[in-house]
Specification:
Strand content: 5-15%
CATH topology of the largest domain: Glycerol-3-phosphate (1)-acyltransferase
Number of strands: 7
Order of helices and strands: HHHHEEHEHEHEHHEHHEHHHHH
Shape: globular
Number of helices: 16
Structural class: alpha/beta
Number of domains: 2
Oligomer: single chain
Radius of gyration: 21 Å
CATH class of the largest domain: Alpha Beta
Distance between the termini: 37 Å
CATH superfamily of the largest domain: Glycerol-3-phosphate (1)-acyltransferase
């Protein structure tokens, strides 16, 4: 590992066992393991962990089993499409929409391992690393640290370092990488790629040409679909809290609870749809060297592929018809589907713990949640109307 990446890269395998020995002594880590695996003997877990020699072994022997457990306990199954097109000898950058803070990248790793591919490295914001032991766990688990909330000069330095590492990872380490299309999750599920992400990725590379630097990364847009978002009511709560007070800001406790809810609560079906590598289409970007225009066109390609890749569930059709006040997709769901979704919405809204919620505010939050479930279908319909990008 190059020293310039020491503070952001996953721990090198030469330091893996030392870092793991430090992690297992942390009370916070012990509590987390006991919470996720209440029937496990922690001393036995520690013994197994201390015998692991590197990140790939950790993924296959430990994380794979934990993810299978989460799949069985909190989903109706994790499925994928498009992965047959991936080359086993070609490292890629997976750019996805962002639904869950922890499980988007984790379940992608599960899909990769099932396909006989090594799990990808994962870019995560340092705002999630609330405790030192969480950073240790993340970097033992192929996590790349993304530095957030820096002043302008430092932010540019951090962006160059991250870009350089991602290029190094794919081209020299031959490891695939996951990164979300935007900083943070789209609260309303209207997934749009941030131009700043594309500009960051193009900061490093061997070529003088921005497009060629992006082509070095073998970008694969990938759509993530969750049937149910366990955090939907927390997002609606945040919308209402901000409506009441425009200065409202979430606390660290809020972020931790969102992580916990996303990991442990029911998600229904989860699907990953890997698109085709962008390189052929990137090569067609000619006639401009304007970085803003190039970033805009690359974002449009990624959004188009992600929107086309969504798996649409009955509740998405119901939500669309409800928000649009129409019956366009009534043949896509049954009366039973509607009753089931209505019951689900009411149970989620009942969880909102803000004081003195009026009936009007409850209906406002209901519409927020309906919009979250309608937007993937809205975006897919728009993408289907466009020519290929």
């Amino acid at each position: 590992m190059k020293e310039e990446f020491n503070d952001i890269a996953p721990y090198d395998d030469s330091a893996f066992q030392e870092s793991m020995a430090r992690l297992v002594k942390e009370p916070g880590f012990e509590n987390a393991i006991k919470y996720v695996m209440p029937d496990a003997d922690y001393n036995v877990v520690v013994k197994d962990l201390l015998q692991i020699k590197g990140k790939d072994e950790f993924q296959k022997k430990i994380m794979f089993g934990i993810l299978l457990l989460l799949e069985r306990m909190t989903t109706s199954g994790v499925t994928d499409s498009g992965f047959d097109n991936l080359s086993t000898g070609k490292s890629s950058l997976f750019i996805t929409n962002h639904r869950d803070i922890v499980l988007d990248a984790s379940f992608l790793g599960l899909a990769m391992i099932r396909r006989g591919l090594p799990a990808q490295e994962v870019a995560l914001g340092d705002n999630l690393l609330i405790y030192d032991w969480i950073e240790d766990l993340v970097r033992l688990n192929k996590g790349i640290i993304v530095k957030r909330n820096l002043r302008l000069t430092k932010a540019l330095e951090a962006a160059k370092q991250l870009s350089s590492y991602i290029h190094y990872c794919i081209r020299e380490k031959h490891e695939s990488v996951w990164i979300a299309q935007r900083e943070g999750r789209a609260k309303d599920s209207n997934d749009v790629t941030q131009e700043s992400v594309i500009k960051m990725l193009a900061l490093a590379g061997d070529s003088e040409n921005m497009v060629e630097r992006l082509m070095e990364l073998n970008i694969i847009p990938t759509a993530i679909s969750y049937e149910y978002d366990p955090n939907d009511y927390l997002k609606a709560r945040e919308f209402l809290a901000r409506r009441r007070d425009p200065e409202f800001k979430k606390s660290q406790r809020d972020d931790l609870f969102s992580m916990e809810t996303g990991i442990l609560q029911f998600k229904g079906q989860v699907h990953f749809a890997a698109g085709k590598c962008l390189n052929d289409r990137l090569a067609q970007i000619t006639g401009t060297t304007d970085k803003v225009e190039i970033a805009r066109r690359v974002c449009a390609m990624i959004d188009h592929d992600i929107h086309l890749g969504y798996k649409i569930f009955p509740l998405n059709y119901i939500a669309y018809d409800r928000v649009e006040n129409c019956s366009r997709f009534e043949n896509k769901y049954t009366t039973e589907d509607v009753e089931k979704f209505n019951d689900y919405l009411n149970r989620q809204l009942d969880k909102v713990d803000l004081p003195d919620v009026t009936e009007e505010e409850r209906e406002y939050m209901r519409k927020c949640i309906l919009t979250m479930y309608a937007n993937p279908l809205r975006n897919q319909l728009t993408a289907q109307e466009k020519e290929d990008l």
